[in-house]
Protein 1
Amino acid sequence: MRRKFRFTDETLRSALRFGEQLLGIRQEETAEDKEPEKQETAPAAAETVPEAPAKAAEAVPEQTGNGQGKSRKKKKQKKAAPEKAPAVPETKEEAPEQPQPVKDQPAPVESAADEKHRVARTDIGLVRSSNQDAVILDEGLCGIADGMGGHNGGEVASGMTRDLIRDLLKDKTPSMELLQRCVQSINRRIYERSLAEPALEGMGTTLTVLWYNEENLFIGHVGDSRAYRLRDGELKQMTEDHSYVAELVRQGLITKEQAECHPMRNIITRAVGTEEGIETDISWHKRHRGDRWLICSDGLYGMVAENELKLLMERQPIGEAADALLKAALDAGGRDNVSLVLFDDEEASA
């Protein structure tokens, strides 16, 4: 979601608790004036909702015997920003679970290769108890959605995004305007469902997707998943993270190296489905023969340094490169779900 100040639910709850406390004090003072011999205790303030743990990469949940963690990551919850830093509107943190049941969503594919120059991998990792990533693969379409939300909400949000974007863009001619409208429609549907089903309250997802035809390639981007392009031996990040630490880097308050180990690096400032409206980054690029594209969740780039990403992406064939990238993330600890799509642009003109 976009960085902005707004009257949030948490702010409302805090105001209500303050009001109840103030009312109780006044009632107690009135009782003392009328009946000095009867000292009544003011009504207790409403119980504070415990703040859910942040999805910090270094905070690894307790593991079971098979190495799987019992807690989940990134949910949107309000978190105070440090002094002298930009305000933090939303966080990818674990929301309190709701009692209502949610239907199981189909699990993302573990691997895929639907055409010669395109492959995908997704893995639950070594800590998490579920995979909330969704791989997007269709004709002229590839991407990643990294969900968040308590009680399976992340799986629902990312799964809805995967299915809706394939349906909405099917047989359409790629354009920036159409991709923009598509993401807005998906955002609205996820947001409305979260309001209709209390168990899914607060759910959302990142989205990074490539949509292309014979000559042009369009990128739609919300959140902190990433798209990289490897061209002539140079690796370039083609998307801009919508995250708290990325904002600090852009403002010159910390360096890129400091951002990689910052304790608040998993706080995002934009996501699909968490608000009624959404701002999407849409970019256009001419296709270039020989380019290799990588779309991935933070479970990959958060565990593997960029220089290593480049070396692994250069491997041939493309399937070996995808396997090497996944293995590197798992060997580094696999603290999150790991998902990626590799796309070799061999059809475009040079």
Note: The two ends are 37 Å apart (CA to CA).
Protein 2
Amino acid sequence: MKISGKKYAGKSDAPFQKECPQSLFLTLAFILLNALAIYFDQYLLNLLPLTLLVLAIAFYHLDWLFFALVFLVPLSVQLKYLVPGLSFDLFLPTEPLLAGILVLFILKLFSGEKMEKSLLTHPVTLAVLFYLAWMAVTSVTSTMPLVSFKYLLAHIWFIISFYFLAVYVFRKKKNMFPLLVVLFNSFFDSYNLYGFAAYYLWSE
């Protein structure tokens, strides 16, 4: 059965023609809002495209997000150096990535995805869970519970990312080679940045 070029083109172009004005409107709206924010010296809106890109990668390629996280850990910068005067501080971009992975992990559990029983009953996993449970108990009885719970939350997203997610990623042996490449590049990037920083300090 033949399909005429005109009929086929009409069907294929219809979704594109419908979505194109919406995408154009959203793009222009973001440009205008971002320009207005920059005018008032607010630069955090620039992170929105990067955030959406990370969410798309996390949804379709969780292993890519893990490799990006490993690569960016030694290159992280404290927020207080980028935006002075804030009442809080965190490392960019790794800590937002870790928080996003934690949220994604919780959503996957609520959506019905189950973890392997062999992983949950492994002695290392039991030791890690006992450690987190004990931290939660001591956070309740702490003299500074808010600080203690922030410390607990930081531990949770590190363990979720570098233990549970790592198990998921390295279940596929083909992912070992990309990890070695990422670690190699990350090491040399860190070494170069350290050299530049030392040169800058000595030149001052």
Note: The longest helix spans residues 5-39.
